[in-house]
Specification:
The protein has 962 residues and is of the alpha+beta class. Helix content is 32%, strand content 18%. Among the domains are: 138 residues, Isoleucyl-tRNA Synthetase, Domain 1, CATH 1.10.730.10; 203 residues, Valyl/Leucyl/Isoleucyl-tRNA synthetase, editing domain (Isoleucyl-tRNA Synthetase, domain 2, Alpha-Beta Complex); 47 residues, no CATH class; 63 residues, Ubiquitin-like (UB roll) (Roll), CATH 3.10.20.590.
């Protein structure tokens, strides 16, 4: 039987047979119990949490979030999941893993007296939703709303205790109104590098007016006209229009952020070819926050692996900018080439200058003719430098960044000009080379082949000289050497080690104004435009100058028009983007009064990327119906501030590690801008981050590599067959593309939601991957059946509990179980908690008879976070009229946790002669003393020569006599 097949569900369920006791806990009973209690929770608003502060706490104004009467008041806890895309195919059993985990933790903490906020919403704008709508032929709004309804049903059926008053979708107009409002805060801000924070553009204007800050052009503010002033301000905005090389995906009809392009140079959505080309797009100046995004990672409680991924993405490098003069047609005063290098101490080894094909100086530098006696290897076989450049650029444009950087023969063409090495005054040729990327550093590299293998390979290919500037160790027999050693062939640097050499050359460069120390980052400004329909419209318009203007906040939201012809058109590589909003001809222009009377303006036709709505949704959960503000300040401080002076933020944020860079980096950036502007109380949005693992499942491929339906595969003699076709098996993430998905609906039907919850939490630690095996689900179901039988008679449905107190051994076991489960729950080790609960229930089963009521009470409360429906049913049957959701979690009596006593056999010459009772944690030395002191052993060893004593703590003592 295929372990991942949903067909196993029916087989496993039917194995129980039809002749069952009338009150056996089976799938039918589980479903009846679960649906009944879910309806009760909805009717009672069991999981609704009020805002204890702010205008909505005690009055019908604001959001009027009501608090369940039975809920305790205590310390706050904000728990959140990375909210899902509303997939058209719905959930498979791999999706709820993290949601169940946060639900168990939230329930546990409620029972511990915390005021818990645990909401859920949907990330419904963007490429995933639009592509699914395009595939189905439906309008994105209809398709998205249907998908949300289906996913909401599936999540509710799991019994997740989300606050239904706070549910939201990024596509809700009342939600994206505030997404647009945040964009305007960013657009109307600039980054003050002296103060290291964002400030309002109005403050920048004041600095220009008073002369406290010089304009970029150097012109006096008072002497600039309106267009010049607006252009100057746009140069400083945190959200700005900039022309830069972008990732153009003609098949999707839009540009993509770097993070949305695979290493193979294809779109991560749809796997379409992506091309680099210059284009004017909206950008976010996230690079201004690079240092703060880096340093504040040390202040949050995240997995170190995620921090490392963010640090690597930000890519901080210390080095120097160096200016190389050129001998272009303009003469010695021609344009200078600026490079960034982390090894300025190797400058004496520079034998060529290499520029990216996209470098802006290339067209200015390229010569008209080849100089006499040009090495034919440098020309690419072209008649002129321009022809060589054009051909080489076309070749490079067809390659991905990964292809350009991978190990292969190094290529390039000479531009017909040289540049001057400032330390020697010698000229070196300026090449265009495709392994130099415009997005790294300045897009220019001083080629130092003695210390860089790629430069070495390039120099060998083009016959360029090679000179070492760092002394390799005597046993070094390679080519380029990039290790430590004293400087050589470097004039006044000779003999200096790296750190001292770097300091010395930087001083030299700065004294002569041809270089300076600096810090650079791999991080690039965030490309924020998408030429798609299904996204938030920009609250931006343009006048006749072509410069952007903000839509007044009072005019928000700028609503997305209902287009019939909304689908993007597949274009060719050379085509310009065609934003679908341009087809909404009436919407594309708008009348506003922006201070000089009502006029007609042209709207921005691109939309925001899907990341926009997910950058701040945690804040809207706090105050979802507030029409007057993004979030009430008191409400935000209650849920987000750290009373102990830490960074604050969401107390527990659970999601997949695939969001380590994209979502988390973007959200941190937005939050820091809002923090600088005084809209939030702490510098970080997520105080504690936890990455859940993935559920994997068997997938099967035929000889063509095509995936076949896993549920139709059978195993015969250790081989796997799809019909009569042999297929190969491997394990991977569960999903539609691998045709190995198992739906939670199938599991609900066969076993109930509580069984699914138990199985997923018991499969392994929450932060680790685990294989799905449908046939193993029945083990979790049988555990719940045994729990049911410990308290309920299967023939009568009556309680089988007694008011007789448990004996000392059972009482001790109960308290030890409570202690262990509390520790495991607190640390999100739910598999360990289930194991200890199972041990306690097994002991009750072993004993048989009636279960002490006090033990039954504890057992149900221990189970409540894990299996809330079954726990509610048993709690009610135990005579409780209030919900178990807010029942106090059991507390262990420290006196009951003292070390228990054990019996240890004592041998003399290998034969058991007595038994002693000692503490379970006794040391080997004390155990030996206790054994010798035993009356029987003392008699047997009196006067004898004891050669040695073997002690095995908890097992035995063997006294060996001569």
């Amino acid at each position: 039987m295929n372990p991942s097949s949903s067909a196993d569900v029916a087989v496993a369920h039917s194995a129980e047979g039809s002749d069952l006791p009338p009150y056996r806990y089976n799938a039918e009973m589980a479903n009846e119990i679960e649906l009944r209690w879910q309806e009760r929770w909805r009717a009672d608003g069991t999981y609704r949490t009020s805002n204890p502060v702010g205008p909505s706490a005690d009055s019908p104004a604001g959001n009027n979030l009501s608090l369940t009467a039975s809920a305790p008041r205590g310390p706050k806890l904000f728990i959140m999941d990375m909210f899902p895309y509303p997939s058209g195919s719905g959930l498979h059993v791999g999706h709820p893993l993290g949601y169940i985990g946060t639900d168990v933790y939230a329930r546990f903490k409620r029972m511990c007296g915390y005021v818990v906020l645990h909401p859920m919403g949907y990330d419904a704008f963007g490429l995933p939703a639009e592509e699914h709508a395009r595939q189905t032929g439906e309008h994105p709004r209809i398709n998205t709303e249907r998908n949300i309804a289906n996913m909401s049903r599936q999540l509710a059926r799991l019994g997740l205790g989300h606050d239904d008053q706070r549910s939201l979708a990024t596509t809700d107009v009342e939600y994206y109104r505030w997404t647009q409002w945040i964009f305007l805060q960013i657009f109307n801000s600039w980054y003050d590098t002296d103060a290291q924070r964002a400030r309002l553009i109005a403050e920048l204007i004041e600095l220009f007016e008073t002369g406290q800050k010089a304009t970029t052009s150097g012109a006096a503010w008072a002497e600039m006209n309106d267009v010049e002033r607006r252009t100057e301000l746009d140069e400083h905005r945190l959200a700005y229009l900039g022309e830069a090389p972008v990732n153009w995906c003609p098949a999707l009809g839009t540009v993509l952020a770097n993070e949305e392009v695979t290493n193979e140079g294809r779109s991560d959505r749809g796997n379409h070819p992506v091309f680099r080309r210059p284009m004017k797009q909206w950008m976010m100046r996230i690079t201004a926050y690079a240092d703060r995004l880096l340093s504040d990672l040390d202040r949050v409680d995240w997995f170190e692996s995620v921090k490392i991924m963010q640090r690597n993405w930000i890519g901080r490098s210390e080095g120097a900018y160096i200016s190389f003069a050129t001998d272009a047609e303009a003469g010695p005063s021609g344009p200078a080439i600026e490079v960034f290098t982390t090894r300025p101490d190797t400058i004496y080894g520079t034998t060529a200058m290499l520029l990216a094909p996209e470098h802006p100086l290339v067209d200015e530098l390229v010569a008209d003719e080849w100089p006499p006696d040009t090495d034919p290897r440098w020309t690419g076989g072209a008649a002129t430098p321009r022809e060589a450049l054009d051909a080489y650029r076309a070749q490079a444009a067809a390659m991905t960044d990964l292809q350009r950087q991978t190990e292969r023969d190094k290529t390039g063409v000479w531009l017909g000009v040289n540049c001057v090495v400032p330390t020697t005054g010698e000229g070196v040729p300026v090449f265009v080379a495709d392994y130099v990327l415009i997005d790294y550093g300045t897009g220019a590299v001083m080629s130092v082949p003695g210390e860089d293998q790629r430069d070495w390979d390039f120099s060998v290919r083009f016959g360029l000289p090679i000179m070492r500037t760092v002394q390799p160790p005597p046993d070094f027999d390679g080519e380029a050497y990039d290790g430590p050693g004293p400087a050589i062939n470097s004039d006044f640097l000779n003999g200096l080690e790296k750190a001292d050499a770097v300091d010395a050359i930087c001083d030299w460069l700065e004294e002569r104004s041809c270089g300076r120390r600096t810090v650079t980052y791999k991080l690039r400004d965030w490309l924020f435009s998408r030429q798609r329909y299904w996204g938030e419209p920009f609250p931006i318009v343009f006048d006749e100058t072509g410069l952007p203007l903000a839509v007044p906040e009072s005019e928000l939201p700028v609503e997305l028009p209902d287009l019939i012809d909304w689908a993007p058109r597949a274009l060719d590589e050379s085509s310009d983007p065609e934003p679908p909003l341009g087809r909404a001809t009436e919407w594309a222009t708008a009348a506003y009064d922006l201070g000089d009377g009502e006029r007609i303006y042209r709207r921005e036709l691109s939309t925001m990327p899907q990341w926009a709505g997910s950058c701040w949704y945690y804040l809207r959960y706090l105050d979802p119906a507030n029409d007057d503000a993004l979030v009430d300040p008191e409400v935000e401080r209650f849920w987000m501030a750290d009373p102990d002076g830490g960074v604050g933020g969401v107390d527990l944020y659970v999601g997949g590690v695939e969001h380590a860079v994209l979502h988390l980096l973007y959200a941190r950036f937005w939050h820091k801008v809002l923090y600088d502007l005084g809209h939030v109380s702490g510098p970080e949005p997520f105080g504690r981050l936890y990455n859940q693992g993935y559920i994997q499942a068997a997938a099967y491929q035929d000889h063509r590599g095509v995936y076949v339906e896993a549920s139709e595969v059978t195993e015969r003699d250790g081989k796997f067959f799809w019909g009569d076709v042999e297929v190969t098996r491997h394990f991977g993430k569960m999903g539609k593309s691998l045709r190995n998905a198992v739906t939670p609906d199938d599991i609900y039907s066969a076993y109930g939601a509580d069984t699914l919850r138990t199985y997923e939490m018991f499969m392994g630690p929450l932060d680790q991957g685990r294989p799905w095996e449908t046939h193993s689900v029945i083990g979790s179901h049988r555990l719940l059946q045994r729990v049911w039988r410990s308290l309920i008679d299967e023939q009568t449905g009556e309680l089988t509990v007694t008011d007789v107190e448990p004996d000392a051994d059972l009482e001790r076991m109960v308290h030890r179980t409570v202690d262990a489960v509390t520790d495991a729950m607190s640390d999100l080790r739910f598999n360990s908690a289930i194991a200890r609960i199972t041990e306690l229930n097994n002991e009750l089963t072993r004993r048989g008879g009636l279960t002490p009521r006090s033990v039954a009470d504890v057992l149900v409360r221990l189970l409540a976070p894990l299996v809330p429906h079954l726990a509610e049913e048993l709690w009610s049957k135990l005579g409780n009229s209030t919900t178990v959701v807010y029942a106090p979690f059991p507390q262990a009596d420290p006196a009951m946790l003292a070390a228990e006593v054990i019996e240890v056999p004592v041998q003399v010459n290998g034969k058991v002669r007595s038994r002693i009772t000692v503490d379970a944690g006794i040391s080997p030395a004390d155990l030996e003393v206790a054994a010798k002191a035993d009356e029987r052993i003392a008699q047997l060893t009196a006067g004898a020569d004891i050669r040695r004593v073997v002690t095995v703590p908890g097992k035995l003592v063997n006294i060996v006599l001569a």
